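Reading group handout, session on sequence-to-structure problems. Before we discuss, look at one worked example. The prompt was deliberately terse, the way you'd type it at a terminal:

> structure 5,6-dimethylbenzimidazole synthase

The input record follows.
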Amino acid sequence: MFSEQERDAIYKVIRKRRDVRSFLTKSIPEEVIGRIIEAGHHAPSVGFMQPWNFIIVHSQKIKKQLAWAADKERRALAIHYEGERQDHFLSLKVEGLKEAPITICVTCDPTRGGTHVLGRNSIPETDMMSVACSIQNMWLASCAEGIALGWVSFYKKNDIREIMKIPPHIDPVALLSLGYTDEYPEAPILETSKWAKREEISKLIYVNHWGKKK
Ligand SMILES: Cc1cc2nc3c(=O)[nH]c(=O)nc-3n(C[C@H](O)[C@H](O)[C@H](O)COP(=O)(O)O)c2cc1C
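And the output record:
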């Protein structure tokens, strides 16, 4: 189905994709944004419910309000850490909402598809999981397009609903900052800033039973 070169390209994008916090002001062509959103819309979804919407924000005023909501939450979350860890947390850059030329708010509508979405009755969160698949598609597509993307989830949902006039039953799942960058990281920023590191994969794989290694 795919040539070796095409297969390698997929794995390359998966490995190269990074969460990015620094953006240039240069704008992104409309057709590129269109392709990225189209990639999001081609994600799998439970019962094919496609619970997502994409709100594209160019307005500097709205971006500033979103940045305010994220910063308020960042400061509130600092109470979970003490001493040096708190200083370290507060030194991390956790969003680039004002700098990025566009923000896309990806939402989840749990009512889409009515009360009996195939497969969703057992695990109601599968609607959110579907939106996460959509976001990952957008992230990989952005990387392939040479566009940096940062996922921001530091906010109170009601702040975002208020700023963007989102109805109460709709979940604002993510704020995605998109733009060009001259600082596309080689490794996760949280790894280079020594906040966390990638787990050894062999520790995560079990066989037949929980905890049973090969
Ligand atoms: C559900 C989700 C929410 C996230 N929220 C934030 C966030 O609010 N701020 C932030 O700086 N990074 C956020 N990230 C990015 C992660 O910190 C990042 O993916 C992780 O450190 C690994 O780095 P990488 O994406 O470059 O591989 C989020 C990622 C996911 C999947």
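Points for discussion. First: The pocket of flavin mononucleotide is lined by residues 18-19, 94-95, 151-154, 188, 190 (CB under 6 Å). Second: The chain has one domain: 16-204.
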